Amino acid sequence: MAKINWLDALNLKQAVENIRNEIPGDWYQDPWGWPELGFFLEKKPELIVDNLNALGVRALTLLDVPKENWGTRPAVILDIADRLTYHALTDCLSAKLIGSMSPDVYGWRLPPIDPSPGVYSHNNHQWDGYRGHLMLLSDLYPVALKTDLVSFFASIPVAMAQEAILDRCPHNDVTRRLCDMIAGFGAIPNRSGIMQRSTASAVIANMYLAPLDDVLKHHSKSIMRLSNGKVSHRSFARWMDDFWLFGYDAGNARQAQMDLQAAALSIGLNLNSAKTDVLEGSEVATQAKEIEHSAVDGALDGDTPDFGPLEALVDKIMGNPEKTNRTSIRFATQRMRKHGSQYRIQELIATACRMPHAADSWSRLFKEVFTNDSLQDWYLEYVSSNWATHEWAIAHLGRMFPSSVKPRKPLLEYFEQAIRDANTGLPLLAVAAQRMGEWDRDEARDAYREGYRRSATPHARRVLALAALKSGESRTTVKGWLSTDVENAPTLAMLESFGWNGPKVQADFAE
What angle do CA 267, 160, 216 make, to 5 degrees? Predict the structure, then answer.
């Protein structure tokens, strides 16, 4: 047992707040928004203390998320107690890990002036700062090196990440437990490196890239200094593993590329040669502005909205749907929804099967544009086609159908079978279980029981238990299901503490 007083050493309240801020961007969307977090904080912090005093990590769930051009991103869904533990430990050490990071590095960081542990700059502001910095640099310099890393998070060697943490932090219980958890994550079969979509992991990843930041600083030029003299900006910008370095000479840019590759190799990483370019002349500003999409917002926000730039972006998406990045598609669909544009909408829904990596964005747009009946026909045709290669996309597109509108029998049967099927992954199971409980409680309860008998993970049993409770399943049955796994002990304790009043489904998930 550790002698440290964990509740004094860590700020659990802050860690819970930070996790809640990152939950909307999770690869897996929990129907109930992980209510255990509030329960830990308000009722049972000792459950987290027990986890801090333990070793290793609890059972988790593997998840395959589609990437551009039919790539697959290996992801994991953490046990909720592990997630809070991991975040609280990293928050505590964050100032030592990334407190001195260059102001020209954006995203998942502490403010460059007077950083405080665990108090991160909001990523919306970071993204605005990143785009603005790129625009400034593209106006000042005629040459730019643009590159990124191959499978960055998955390629980080766990042992080297631990060493980097130990180099920066005191060797105490906090550091030891964090390194122990990282070792546990690194030992997960069929997964390597550190997990994605986690602020805690992003902090560690930003820390790990310090050698590459040193190369960027060496090859960059000073461009401005704020009046307080505390923040000096240079002619580079980094957003996690996306790098931009600006200058005057293409040969110097290529030399910097070689130095970046050497620095990457020294820490077990590789530059992505397929995505590395040295841009010159007008191409510098052109490619920098592709990230910003400033022309779209500027045209739409005028007194008389001009849809031309937005439509040009849609045309570009349609010209190469498989390879268009998620960020551009999300940007386009958000503006289409906000401004009521239906430009090429029939072609977009016909082509959406080619963009499984953006299924969450298409789902939100399509349910606002098309009738529920027509979407049911389209969805069932899609899930039975060869295009339905990633269950993550099937799950997000399944959210086109709101809880409040009972669908026709074929869609009911599809979701019911998904609950009963032992091979159904957690994202689709969560959508199907929550929707079926609203659409047909009797059939849902029977499906939940079979689903439980076939279930293979604590996460799946938690979803089935919470959905079944809402559908009128007995407390005895639900308690038995949750008692199977130590990972679900917090969920069981939460229900008992609140008189078996099940948590509410998040409005955004149900709609």
Answer: 35
Q: In angstroms, rounded to a whole number, what is the distance separating the alpha carbons of residues 393 and 418?
A: 14
Q: Is residue 1 part of a domain?
A: no
Residue 353: pLDDT over 50: yes
**What's the CA gap between 443 and 477, in Å, rounded?**
16
Q: Is residue 381 within 8 Å of residue 374, measured between CB atoms?
A: no
**What pLDDT sits at residue 227?**
54
- Is residue 40's pLDDT more than 90? yes
Residue 209 sits in which domain range? Answer: 6-290
Final residue before a domain boundary, out of 290, 324, 354: 290
Q: What is the pLDDT of residues 57-114, one digit of tens each?
A: 999 999 999 999 999 999 999 999 999 999 999 999 999 999 999 999 999 999 998 9
| Closest by Cα among 335, 357, 336 to 347 | 336
CA distance 200 to 178: 10
Q: What are 52-69's pLDDT values in tens digits?
A: 999 999 999 999 999 999
Q: What is the pLDDT of residues 119-158, one digit of tens each?
A: 999 999 999 999 999 999 999 999 999 999 999 999 999 9
Percent of the chain exceeding pLDDT 70 equals: 98
pLDDT of residue 455: 96
Asked, for residue 364, whether it belongs to a domain, the answer is: no
pLDDT in the model for residue 290: 75
- Residue 323 in tokens: 């390879």
Greatest CA separation for the chain: 72
Number of domains composing the chain: 2
Specify the DSSP element, H or E, that contains 73. strand 72-77
- The DSSP secondary-structure symbol of 198 reads -
What is the rounded distance in angstroms from the CA atom of residue 355 to the CA atom of residue 2?
Answer: 49
The CA distance from 148 to 126, in Å, is 19
In a domain, 465, yes or no: yes
Q: What are phi and psi of 277, to 5 degrees?
A: -140, 150
Do both 257 and 406 map to the same domain? no
Same domain, 224 and 83: yes
Examine residue 124 and state whether it is found in any structural domain, yes or no: yes
State the SS3 of 47-65: HHHHHHCCCCCCCCEEEEE
258/407 same-domain check? no
Collapse the DSSP code of 244 into the 3-class scheme (helix H, G, I; strand E, B; otherwise coil) and give the result. strand
Nearest to 432 by CA among 395, 387, 461: 395
pLDDT tens for 461-477 read 999 999 999 999 999 99
Domain end among 266, 290, 314:
290
Do 343 and 314 form a contact (C-beta atoms < 8 A)? yes
1: pLDDT strictly greater than 50: no
* Averaged pLDDT, 238-264: 97
Asked if residues 430 and 463 have their Cβ atoms less than 8 Å apart, the reply is: yes
Q: How far apart are CA 125 and CA 107, in angstroms?
A: 9
Sequence-distant (≥ 6) Cβ neighbours of residue 448 within 8 angstroms: 419, 433, 464, 467, 468, 471, 473
